[in-house]
Amino acid sequence: MSEVRLFDPAALPVYENPDTLYSFFVNCVRQYGNNIAYIYTAAGKEHRVTYGKLFEDVLLLAKGFQRRGMSRGDKVMLLSDNRYAWMVTDLAMMSIGAVNVPRGSDTPTQELEFIVNNANCTFLIVETDTLLESHKSFLEGCKQLKTVFAMTGQGLHTLFGNLYAYNDLLRDRRYSIKDMEAFFEQGEQLRASDLLTIIYTSGTTGLPKGVMLSHSNIMHNVHVVPEIIQLTENDHWLSILPSWHIFERTAEYVALARGTTLVYSSVKRFGQDLEKYSPTLVATVPRVWESLYSKVQLAVSKKGDMAQNLFRVLVWGSAGYRRNRRKVLGRIPVFRDKGAVLSAIEKTGASCKMILLYPLYRFADKKLAMVRQRFGGQLRLAISGGGTLAPHLEEWIDAVGIRIVNAYGMTECSPAIAGRGLTCRTWGTLGPPVANTTLRIVSDEGKILPDGEEGSIEVSGPQVTSGYYNNEEENKKSFTEDGFFKTGDLGKMTINGELVITGRAKEIIVLSSGENIDPTRIENALSMFPFIQDALLVGQDKKGLGALLVPNIEELKEYVSKKVIGLKKGRVDFWNDSKVLEQIRRDMNRILMPKQGFKPYEKLQRITFLDKEFKLGEELTNTMKKKRHVIEKKYKVLINNLLR
User: Fold this and answer.
1) pTM of the model
2) What is the tens place of the pLDDT at every residue in 512-535?
3) What pairs with residue 616 in β-bridges?
4) In Å, what is the CA distance from 215 to each residue of 22, 193, 459?
5) What b/e string do you get for 40-61 counting C-beta neighbours within 10 Å, with b at 16 or more?
6) Which DSSP state fits 596?
7) How far is residue 459 CA from its own chain's centroid?
8) How many of the other CB atoms lie within 10 Å of CB of 568?
9) How far apart are CA 382 and CA 216, in angstroms?
């Protein structure tokens, strides 16, 4: 049937102080109704959706959900990756007052069953009918689900069945004035304290925990983040992360806040879409930047030794100039007052180096424009969150002329805790805490530590969760008596109030000799080698450290051909050759030196290459963090043989 449009965005209600996602959404549509909100590709065709069209889609889907019994307070399991229909679904549920319990499409049936039961879900929404089929055995025996919806598929509903495709719900796209009034009425009944979503953590250390986030938790981020990145209506984003993850989800809400455009891409199309859409903003995780770094390095190496050496010199010159400029301008972390004389001496030395490097820097800046073009040519900010960005990678991105925003957050904080945005230029830090947020560094005994001393990070603020759903044991462990959330991360503060992450308390490796080692620092250092796609440090309760390495075979072949003499040609598994392993181990240990901040016991005793990549949903979370407990369990025999 023909579609009937009944509303003018400018005629929508105005909410002076939006404190719920509903009032925020309506305000955005009213102000930016004719702007393009989303661009996505389906069946080979590009689609562009205005804010006005988004509103209509949300209204119609909410109407369809309510006709099938969904109401305020219902827990709804949403099993899908990022796509336009995800955000429409999320906003439709929100407008009803239902609680979104999201998860990725690669969720195993066992985990799906756990979350549905733990969160008391009564509705399920899946991305595809194929995905529906993969969980058929569980769904047939699950009595608590009233209705199941599939985003794709045709005519799935039967006379007495409880399964509906979105096409079944939206076959009639007409709506009335009465429908709009009902939409506004139910939205205005929502309160800032209402539960908006339960997000189950990725489970890097065990069973997932359901993080409860209210409208006010999320809205804190929506209000403060646009100022940190100085977001404007002229910005446009490129998105590849799963929408269900809090980092991407909040980024999408923030994109709506200023009427910007968001383009849905994928890991496979990311490089291509960077050049096609020329985004001004990209929000993604360190692993994606590692991949782009490797691709650029590989492309340069294929041009020959001369081109490769020239590129290295250009990056070295640009990085060196920028590093010394930061010293002159006082944009480096300071943990104790050095005094005026010592500071003046250091700045004078840095100024001299700047003068010497300036000609090379100017030349490099022009040449490295070709690299910036691979990122679309208009990228003003590269936002990295969801993990620690390796220092060498951060410096490389900066050297090629891309402004990096290093952010720190977690699901329990909706997610923003701190960020080195455009309001902070102190390199090597995560910037100050976001507005209305208190950070403190404490000792193992709970004593608040002074600036510059490492300890556990605790946080308090309006974005912090009220707790884990149906999990009192974790709630007791995760909060202090005075209400601060224990992040589980280690860090320290500069004298200017900026945060520096130093490690993850739960990931510390303890050797049999008692030394504590943060694996992330060493793994980040190993990722400097272009042939390393992934690295996992091992050695818990062992005499020394080992590394499980996932190679980029082509890069490894080139490296070995230059470094190892006398290797038999044509050997298929050359990476298992003892000469190769020993040479690479020695090369790696050369960068794990005390002058680089590593301790003598942080050297590698043994290394080995794995013949399989780490996969999403198995060894990797959906934001591509390594599940250490899963990997260590899977390769337990290999690890024991490696470090026996």
Assistant:
1) 0.83
2) 666 778 888 899 889 889 899 999
3) 620
4) 9, 6, 19
5) beeeeeeeebbbbbbbbbbbbb
6) G
7) 20
8) 8
9) 27
